[in-house]
Amino acid sequence: MPVNTYECMLILHPNQYARDPSGVSAQITTFVEKHNGKMLVSRLWDERKLAYPINGQRKGTYWLSYFELESTAV
């Protein structure tokens, strides 16, 4: 199968990143590698106010990742 490059933007609970910044990166990389993918870039993008609250949270930590993965694994 062809391997495609994907962009992924995750919105994390702000406390999740504050408690364990390296753990967040490792967790996302592990997820991609578990599906036989290759992480290209994974980094903190920004912490921002959300347009509307999600489960009572008004802020979110945005995490940006680029990875290669077979299209059938998505």
Offer a few descriptive terms.
74 residues; alpha+beta; 3-stranded antiparallel sheet; 2 helices; 27% helix
Give a short summary of the structure.
With 74 residues, the protein is of the alpha+beta class.
- Based on CA atoms alone, the radius of gyration comes out at 14 Å
Counting helices, strands and paired strands, the structural category is alpha+beta
| Sheet with most strands | 3 strands, antiparallel
Please report the distance between the alpha carbons of the first and last residues.
12 Å
Count, helices: 2
The helix content, as a percent range, equals 25-40%
The strand count comes to 3
The proportion of strand residues reads: over 45%
- Poorly predicted runs are none
The coarse silhouette is elongated
Mean residue pLDDT: 92
Write a structural description.
This protein has 74 residues and is of the alpha+beta class. It is built from two helices and three strands; from the N terminus they run E-H-H-E-E. A three-stranded antiparallel β-sheet has the order 1-3-2. The chain is elongated and about 40 Å long. The model has no long low-confidence stretch (mean pLDDT 92).
Sequence-ordered SSE layout with sheet pairings:
Elements lengths: L2 E10 L1 H6 L1 H14 L3 E17 L2 E14 L4
Antiparallel strand pairs: 1-3, 2-3
